[in-house]
Design a protein that fits this description.
InterPro entries: Glyco_trans_1, Glyco_trans_4-like_N, Glycosyltransferase_grp1
Organism: Microbacterium esteraromaticum
Strand order of the largest sheet: 3-4-2-1-7-8-9-10
Number of domains: 2
Shape: globular
CATH class of the largest domain: Alpha Beta
Radius of gyration: 21 Å
Number of helices: 14
Pfam families: Glyco_transf_4, Glycos_transf_1
CATH topology of the largest domain: Rossmann fold
Domain Glycosyl transferase family: 223-377
Protein name: D-inositol 3-phosphate glycosyltransferase
Order of helices and strands: EHEEEEEHEHEHHEHEEHEHEHEHEHEHHH
Strand content: 15-25%
CATH superfamily of the largest domain: Glycogen Phosphorylase B
Length: 406
């Protein structure tokens, strides 16, 4: 059973000494993958290294062979990676996984080698499942973070829906067993924590923001010289980028709006086809995967960030947009209302409602300069509570089994 944030015991053993910890982070997705869970793990690991901890990463390899432990530079920080033999999930454009029946075997090998003070899994699916079971047998504490939504699982299968539902039920039952072995379970937001508690009937899930280093962004509070919508993220079904394209087609032509889409995914060709069908080719740019510098430039020159997704447990890209002083128009679903405060730093719209999205985007584009600047400042103020240092402080306390910071 998981513990609540108020009932942590006094720290004991090595973790209580205050010395740097040896932390093993288990990921089913990690660099070079580009998605919210991978980006969070990278930033968490880099922040922990910067604080003096010895961080090891277990993640799928890009090919079916086991790589020797090696030092990789992630987010500017050196850490040791243990890449496991992985195969690509064919219905998905980049997702790789290790064979589930090998997960405990590899967990034993890595734990023998690393002998960590604590294991922090980023998923209960495969690697995290194996690590948790072997770590529990050896008395190594486990912290589990959940980044999974049902839509993320169902969107990439090729099985009939009734089969999907049965698989999903079994997967959540297994998730309950895995999380039940953890000393603490976390998710990015309170809504996500409540979702997990309802779904698998556990208590005490701790909401901890993924965090963001605001120093990495270039906010400019000023009107833009052109109306530009930006979306950043994986081009998959649950992101609902098609809703934004349909809204773009219905916006007043006099607004002369351009839509920048940064990211790759299995839906890119379908979205390009839809853009052509709607006659938007000259108003939509598919940038694909971009560098950090290119991404900062896109944020800085955009007028508004639009996200129609219905499956965000937090949305790091929305926080990045806010740190870049962008108003946000987002779907009123899952975690987005935690970031988008309607009428303050942007607007919420009814999920899937194109006309409502058109209305909210028009409000941003037609706002007087002072009102637009107010929304920009509200985004900057709103993202301040998601500072990465607070996130790191909280996870360090969980690793050491200490009371969480207020």
């Amino acid at each position: 059973m998981t513990s609540s944030p108020d009932d942590h015991r006094a720290p004991t053993g090595a973790a209580a000494s205050g010395r740097p910890l040896k932390i093993l982070i288990g990921c089913d997705t990690f660099a070079p993958d580009i998605n919210g869970a991978a980006r969070f793990a990278e930033r968490l690991a880099a922040g922990l290294v910067e604080r003096g901890h010895d961080v090891h990463i277990v993640a799928p390899n890009i090919r079916y062979r086991r790589a020797q432990p090696q030092t990789e530079i992630i987010e500017g920080q050196p850490m040791t990676t243990h890449r496991l033999p992985a195969v690509r999930w064919l219905p998905h454009d980049w997702l790789r996984f290790i064979w589930p029946w090998r997960s405990k075997h590899y967990a034993r090998k890595v734990l023998d080698l690393v002998q960590p003070d604590v294991v922090h899994i980023q998923s209960h699916i495969v690697i995290g499942r194996g690590l948790t079971r072997i770590a529990q047998q050896r008395g190594i504490p486990v912290i589990a973070t959940n980044h999974v939504m049902a839509e993320n699982i169902l969107d990439h299968t090729s099985m009939p829906m009734f089969v999907n539902k049965m698989v999903l039920k079994l997967a959540w039952a297994d998730a309950k067993r895995t999380f039940g072995m953890a000393r603490a379970v976390t998710t990015p937001t309170r809504n996500a924590a409540s979702f997990l508690e309802r779904t698998i009937d556990i208590t005490g899930v701790v909401p901890i923001s993924c965090g963001i280093d605001r120093r990495n962004y270039l906010p400019v509070i000023a009107p833009r010289d052109k109306n530009r919508i930006l979306f950043v993220g994986r081009l998959t079904g649950e992101k609902k980028v098609d809703v934004v394209l349909h809204a773009l087609a219905k916006l007043d032509p006099a607004l002369d709006v351009h839509f920048d889409i940064a990211g790759g995914g299995d839906q890119r060709k379908a979205l390009e086809a839809l853009s052509h069908e709607l006659g938007l080719e000259d108003r939509v740019t598919f940038h694909g995967r971009v560098t950090d510098e290119q991404l900062r430039d896109l944020y800085s020159r955009s007028s508004v960030f639009a996200i129609a997704s219905i499956a965000e447990l937090q949305s790091i890209v929305t926080m990045e947009a806010m740190a870049s002083a962008l108003p946000v128009v987002g779907a009123n679903a899952v975690a987005l209302p935690h970031l988008v405060h309607d009428g303050e730093n942007g607007y919420l719209f009814e999920p899937g409602n194109v006309d409502d999205l058109v209305d909210k985007l028009t409000r941003v584009f037609t706002a007087p300069a002072a009102e637009y600047a107010r929304m920009q400042q509200a985004s900057l103020d709103g993202v301040a509570v998601h500072d990465i240092n607070r996130t790191l402080d909280t996870f360090e306390a969980l690793y050491r089994d200490e009371p969480l910071p207020a």
